[in-house]
């Protein structure tokens, strides 16, 4: 496949995209250290800091969620690659200044987890108070009882950033930030579907292959196999298949309250997302499940991949309050 993208030297993708982000949102973010995105105005001394890490190529996530009420630092790797432990340690050290502790939020991908584990070891050696939460929201097609350890990190990290960031902003302890982050993570599930693959912007290589009349449910953020390849379905049919799996996996019962996030993969139009969300809303209403909060848009993408992720999260009064708390990250503003 011929790659057509508005880029310059492929070797300079990371610094150029981060520089563009910082220039576009100077009141929210700034660049510090080595390709690390930080809040433009640091959080007040004495408050817990939130740090995340992950590869680029998924814009606006993860750096798009740095700002008041969400993340303090995002350590960004090369395209689809973990950033490596040295820069993560650099971010942790910056975050620990004037702070009672740091919460490290990590998506469950092998490279990210390896970098995070080395970082945690270094923090412990240097007596830096750090806690880590691993987001494992992505379920696989046909595996409704899959182990939490096998679930991949998808768009569910955004919900963890939001509620944990709200707790940190109000000045609560590191233990309380960890409790809320874990509560959100444990009550969140996501499922992805794709119609068309993405290309790596540096090489032009496709991530996976799908037939013109095929779609695949259950794949990971980078196109990892989901075992749910099937003939193309309509928006309503696809929403029904995916929502059935999500509700069963999370064990959602009638009368419960849900947050639903519909995340476009990069090349899916808002027209399609709104049509799918319409179907999701109707299914939940028919099952007497309360849709208490929602978000629709492109939050964590994979270049020009066509498809979307549905994320559901069981919500209580505490989590709804924290979800509604103010934030001014470039790609998630609430007031």
If you had to describe this structure to a student in words, what would you say it looks like?
This protein starts with 12 loop residues before the first helix and ends with a strand. The strands form 3 sheets. It has a 6-stranded mixed beta sheet with strand order 1-2-4-3-5-6, with helices on both faces. Strands 9-8-7-12-10-11 form a 6-stranded mixed beta sheet. The protein is globular and about 55 Å long. Helix 4 packs antiparallel against helix 5 and helix 6 crosses helix 7. The chain is an alpha/beta fold and 335 residues long. A hairpin with a 2-residue loop joins strand 13 and strand 14. It contains 8 helices and 14 strands. The mean pLDDT is 93. It has 2 domains: 187 residues, Rossmann fold; 131 residues, 2-Layer Sandwich (Hypothetical Protein Tm841, Chain: A,domain 3), CATH 3.30.1180.
Q: Which labels suit this protein?
A:
335 residues, alpha/beta, Rossmann fold, Hypothetical Protein Tm841, Chain: A,domain 3, six-stranded mixed beta sheet, 8 helices, globular
List the helices and strands and how they pair.
Elements: H1 13-24, E1 29-32, E2 36-39, E3 49-56, E4 73-79, H2 85-96, E5 102-107, H3 110-125, E6 130-135, H4 156-169, H5 174-186, E7 188-196, E8 214-217, E9 228-231, H6 235-250, E10 257-264, H7 270-286, E11 290-297, E12 306-314, H8 317-324, E13 327-329, E14 332-334
Parallel strand pairs: 3-4, 3-5, 5-6, 10-11
Antiparallel strand pairs: 1-2, 2-4, 7-8, 7-12, 8-9, 10-12, 13-14
Helix pairs in contact: 2-3, 4-5, 6-7
């Amino acid at each position: 496949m011929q790659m057509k993208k508005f880029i310059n030297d492929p070797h300079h993708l990371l610094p150029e995209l981060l520089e563009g982000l910082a220039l576009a949102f100077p009141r929210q973010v700034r660049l510090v250290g080595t390709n690390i995105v930080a809040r433009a105005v640091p959080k007040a001394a004495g408050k817990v800091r939130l740090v995340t890490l992950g590869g680029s190529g998924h814009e606006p996530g993860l750096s798009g969620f740095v700002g008041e009420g969400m993340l303090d630092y995002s350590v960004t790797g090369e395209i689809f690659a973990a950033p490596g432990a040295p820069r993560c340690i650099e971010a942790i050290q910056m975050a620990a200044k004037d702070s009672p502790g740091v919460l490290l939020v990590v998506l469950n991908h092998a490279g990210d987890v390896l970098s995070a584990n080395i970082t945690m070891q270094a923090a412990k050696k240097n007596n830096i108070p750090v806690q880590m939460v691993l987001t494992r929201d992505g379920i696989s097609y046909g595996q409704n009882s899959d182990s939490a350890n096998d679930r991949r990190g998808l768009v569910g990290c955004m919900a963890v950033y939001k509620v944990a960031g709200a707790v940190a902003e109000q000045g609560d302890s590191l233990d309380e930030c960890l409790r809320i982050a874990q509560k959100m993570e444990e009550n969140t599930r996501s499922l992805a579907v794709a119609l068309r693959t993405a290309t790596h912007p540096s090489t032009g290589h496709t991530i996976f292959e799908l037939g013109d009349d095929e779609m695949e449910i259950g794949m990971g953020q980078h196109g990892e196999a989901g075992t749910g390849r099937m003939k193309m379905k309509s928006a309503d049919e696809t929403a029904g298949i995916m929502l059935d799996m999500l509700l069963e996996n999370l064990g959602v019962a009638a009368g419960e309250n849900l947050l639903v996030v519909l995340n476009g993969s990069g090349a899916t139009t808002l027209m399609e997302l709104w049509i799918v969300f319409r179907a999701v809303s109707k299914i939940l209403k028919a099952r007497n499940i309360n849709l208490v909060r929602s978000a629709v848009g492109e939050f964590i993408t994979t270049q020009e991949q066509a498809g979307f992720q549905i994320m559901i999260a069981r919500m209580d009064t505490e989590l709804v309050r924290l979800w509604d708390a103010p934030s001014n990250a470039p790609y998630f503003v609430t007031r």
